[in-house]
Design a protein that fits this description.
heterodimer, A: Pyruvate-ferredoxin Oxidoreductase, domain 3, Rossmann fold, 3 domains, 20 helices, B: eight-stranded mixed sheet, three-stranded antiparallel sheet, about 20% strand
């Protein structure tokens, strides 16, 4: 990657680093998300492998300066492959005392700490509950502390622009970005371009933010404060076009791709809910793809409309998070009963009830599999990484269409907002999902099942000669007439179960990373993928006989799973819940798998999994975080 | 307008709209009469049979789709408007009908009902109002009169009832009408008007449940007395009723009143204007014993149709940005190339 910064910034010694984890933290109005994203883009363009995690409060604008209002953004950039946004930051940029207090415990000793001096005034210190000023009380001595007059220097740089004090201070995040851009020798062009695009309606703001950014850069270069710069060389990444993509964007784009490959219009019925709303926002911008988005009056209507659209022959989707899943349950059961294709995307968050709206969790797995009255089997797949949401969207669509069934696609807050580079897929490489609706009246019955898949024909209303009625009442197999006959009901219950169970035939062999037999298999599903991969790689590098298998298909489970489980002395299942996959695996495979559960609204740290596996190797069976 | 007439096919009859399923309503149920009138008019609406879709929720009325030989979907309690919304959005060319009841539409499904009316999808809603829960065997409904003694209200209900027409008007419905199960011609005509109206058409059909609430609307259905208790409203015509059409509605200040009509006051009789929301609201609130029960088209105005607006936006996006290019979409955003 060409260095687009025209200034040769070699006046200070440059230290090479393999990996850096940086966290930006400030008030939720301080623009820390934008700062983080810009630094991420610059790092991607510098050729590093990256992984990011924003962390923001549920309150849109909590009172300024308070702990409740702290918003953060963490980036891991490296010259080798990275799998997580990093356990603990090496660098913390904190714009006020609350941001410092909320994050300082995570910073490594001797880590770089960059603070805005003006933020540490008496008022802000009080709001953050600091009895003494940490800038002067010695409590930060174990860090490389850089206290910078960010606000003051920004004000000076923008002095003649005629902006209000408030407007000026809104630019200080770009000053901070300028400092770290210099410090890590990131290209400046992407940020300058971004500023020009973001504020294009107001040239004064373009000038102001550009100046703030450049002032930060120059400050790094000229200030005596910094004695060295750092370099993180490009990672060796397979050639191709990459896109930094969040889970929610990947999911939205994947749905558009699935609809195109199926030759169907895409219909989204949804009700705004964190952290799923961005999928609705994203898809509502794809009208040129014929995408119909319907913001419903409630969660029930969102999924109801999707079922109606599926009846009409659209690729129908509803997106939500935990509370919405509860409300949609009855309609999902209807879709299972009338056997119409439907994709239910559950972007999980901390529960129960309203729970932790902006924090991640994996506690809806059993709700997705079992959360309906009656025997209402539904296939469930789970995305492992932000980019994997794209492939999972296509796979969910494939299963829904082929088997005429609702499909749950599980993501979570961590995947939804986290981002990673995605090797942009070629359209020709995407699966062909072409749908053929039945139009032949001869021999037609609504529940005439295809022998292999047991799926029923999909008929669009408007097709002459195929007029028929479907509904929630139990129906006779084949004819679809209402039937309360005892034997028919049992047959239909078993057929629906068999149809969903039969999807297992198509599940590809489960990939096991590590020795084919050994002491510990770490089994995961969903967004624990990153920390598990990183942890298992580390353990393997230390010579431990530890392997990793990760499940995309959680209902039905892969047919080869039992055989894989049997090859290891112990099976450890880390989950951000109380042990839901654990229950399934224990029940279905009678294996004494051991759970490792973290329910803190935060993803696992790599070190937590490493330590847990090590303990297991030593014989401990504790299930929680120590 | 939903559907297209097809000239080549032989004209269908009511018989062609009967499904092969046995109708299982209680003998004497008002639903039979409604089903018959609907089956009678469907062949005349200029819509190919395969383009009709009947969607219902749960309850006695919601069994309706099983008996009509078109596409049909018997969905969930209260959810028919939600499902119909998705269908109509995905397939605007279909003629979509929603069959619901006072429990299904006004109680468990109240939210969906008001929002489909507000959005104004081009669908027809037939709400069978029998003022009782039939399928669950006789509990009071949100339209039951105060003090209704039922299985769940042995000392009489203390709920205040909805006026369905007023609710529909409050939900910004563009077409609001009322008819009666046994008024064959009136019912046919009202449903035809509902179908012809572009936008959400709400028709309350007073329907007798002869098992759990027999005679709930006897005043407006009994031959001998109904003329004195029904006010048949027609656009541009005076609001007269009574066997001799000798009574009428007049405004006294802002309040309607019933007067005996004679040469001295016949010019004061209110003329129905179905485009006037104030008149519509007045009619929607008129009820016995003070007033006759108004039937007919209460309100009919054109408003933009929701699904048309949705598809116009899609068309204009395609026009402006070109038909979506998937490869371009995948490769957009924060993109870089590794050599």
């Amino acid at each position: 990657m060409a260095e687009s910064n025209p200034r040769v910034a070699n006046e200070k010694p440059v230290k090479e680093l393999e990996t850096v984890v940086i966290r930006f933290a400030g008030d939720s109005g301080d623009g820390m998300q934008v700062t983080g994203m810009q630094f991420t883009n610059a790092s991607a363009l510098a050729g590093n492998d990256i992984s990011t995690l924003p962390d923001f409060p549920a309150e849109i604008r909590a009172p300024a300066g308070t702990l409740a209002g702290v918003s953060g953004y963490q980036l891991n950039f490296s010259q080798r492959e990275v799998f997580t946004p990093g356990d603990t930051p090496d660098v913390l940029v904190a714009m006020n005392p609350a941001a410092l207090k909320a994050n300082i415990e995570d910073l490594e000793p001797n880590g770089i700490l960059i603070l805005d001096k003006e933020g540490f005034n008496e008022q802000n210190l009080k709001k953050a509950d600091y009895a003494t000023n940490p800038l002067s009380d010695g409590s930060l001595d174990k860090y490389q502390l850089f206290t910078i007059d960010v606000s003051k220097l920004t004000t000076l740089a923008l002095a003649d622009l005629g902006l209000s004090n408030k407007q000026v201070l809104r630019c200080k995040n770009f000053f901070a970005l300028g400092i770290v851009t210099w410090m890590y020798q990131r290209p400046t062009e992407p940020t300058l371009k971004f500023i020009a695009a973001r504020f294009k309606k107001d040239p004064v703001l373009v000038e102001a933010n550009t100046r703030a950014f450049k002032a930060g850069l120059h400050f790094g270069e000229t200030s005596e404060l910094f004695v060295e710069q750092y370099e993180v060389k490009p990672a060796s990444i397979p050639p191709g076009t990459y896109r930094n993509i969040t889970g929610n964007t990947a999911l939205a784009v994947g749905l558009v791709a699935a609809a195109r490959r199926a030759g169907l219009p895409l219909f989204l019925g949804s009700y705004p809910i964190t952290p799923a709303s961005d999928i609705l926002h994203e898809l509502s911008g794809y009208k040129q793809f014929g995408v119909i988005t319907f913001q419903a009056e409630d969660e029930i209507s969102g999924v109801g409309a999707a079922v109606g659209a599926a009846f009409g022959g659209a690729l129908a989707v509803t997106t939500t998070s935990g509370p919405g899943i509860d409300l949609k349950a009855e309609t999902v059961g209807l879709a299972a009963k009338v056997e119409l294709p439907l994709i239910i995307c559950d972007i999980q968050r901390g529960g129960p009830s309203t729970g932790l709206p902006t924090k991640t969790e994996q506690a809806d797995l059993l709700a997705a599999i079992y959360g309906r009255h009656g025997e209402a089997p539904v296939p469930v797949i789970a995305a492992a990484t932000p980019a994997d949401c794209f492939d999972c969207a296509l796979e969910a669509a494939r299963i829904a269409i082929k088997y005429m069934t609702p499909v749950f696609l599980l993501s979570d807050g961590y995947l939804a907002n986290g981002a990673e580079p995605w090797l942009v897929e070629s359209v020709d490489d995407l699966p062909d999902l072409q749908v053929e609706f039945r139009t032949e009246p001869k021999g037609y019955f609504p529940y005439l099942r295809e022998p292999e898949t047991l799926s029923r024909p999909w008929v669009r209303p408007g097709t002459p000669g195929l007029e028929h009625r479907i509904g929630g009442l139990e129906t006779e197999n084949t004819t679809g007439n209402i039937s309360y006959a005892p034997a028919n009901h049992e047959q239909m219950v078993r057929l629906r179960a068999k149809k969903v169970a039969g999807i297992a035939r198509e599940i590809p062999p489960t990939r096991v990373d590590g020795p084919p037999t050994g002491r510990v298999l770490v089994l995961g599903w969903g967004s624990t993928y990153g920390p598990i991969v990183a942890a298992v790689k580390q353990l393997q590098a230390e010579g431990q006989a530890v392997a990793h298998a990760h499940l995309r298909y959680v209902n039905p489970l892969p047919p080869d799973l039992g055989e894989i489980l049997a090859r290891y002395e112990k099976v450890l299942i880390p989950e951000m819940n109380m042990g839901q996959l654990l229950q399934l695996v224990r029940a279905q495979h009678l294996t004494p798998a051991i759970g490792f559960n973290k329910i803190q609204g935060r993803p696992f740290k790599v070190v937590e999994i490493v330590n847990r596996v090590k303990k297991l190797l030593d014989g401990s069976t504790s299930e929680g975080i120590d | 307008m939903a559907g297209n007439s097809s000239n080549e096919q032989p004209k269908l009859t009511a018989k062609d709209f009967e499904s092969d399923q046995d109708v299982r309503w209680c003998p004497g149920c008002g639903d039979y009469a409604i089903l018959k009138q609907v089956q009678k008019i469907l062949p005349d609406l200029g819509v190919p049979r395969e383009n009709f879709v009947f969607i219902s929720g749960i309850g006695c009325s919601s069994r309706f789709p099983y008996y009509v030989n078109t596409y049909g979907f018997h969905t969930l309690h209260g959810r028919a408007p939600a499902i119909a919304t998705g269908l109509k959005l995905a397939r605007p060319e279909l003629s979509v009908w929603i069959v619901t009841g006072d429990g299904d539409g006004l109680s468990i499904g109240g939210n969906h009902l008001i929002h489909i009316l507000r959005r104004n999808l081009d669908v027809n809603l037939l709400l069978f109002n029998n003022r009782i829960y039939g399928l669950t065997k006789g509990q009071y409904s949100p339209t039951s009169e105060e003090g209704k003694v039922t299985k769940s209200t042995p000392l009489g209900s203390v709920d205040f009832p909805f006026k369905p027409l007023a609710l529909a008007l409050g939900a910004e419905a563009g077409f609001v009408a009322r008819s009666v199960d046994v008024e064959a011609k009136h019912l046919q005509e009202t449903i035809r008007r509902a179908h012809a109206h572009r936008g959400a058409s709400f028709v309350e059909i007073l329907q007798n449940c002869n098992i759990f609430n027999d005679g709930a609307f006897a005043e407006v259905t009994e031959k001998e007395i109904k003329a004195d208790h029904q006010l048949v409203v027609e656009h541009g015509k005076p609001m007269l009723f009574g066997k001799q059409r000798d009574r009428g509605i007049r405004l006294n200040g802002f309040r309607p009143e019933v007067i005996k009509v004679d040469a001295s006051n016949e010019r004061e009789i209110l003329i129905h204007d179905e485009t006037n929301p104030v008149v519509a609201s007045m009619l929607a609130h008129m009820q016995p014993p003070e007033f006759p029960t108004p039937i007919g088209v209460i309100y009919a105005v054109d408003r933009p149709v929701y699904e048309e607006a949705v598809h116009r936006q899609i068309e204009s996006a395609i026009k402006q940005r070109g038909n979506g290019d998937l490869a371009k979409l995948l490769g957009s955003g924060d993109v870089w190339t590794v050599q």
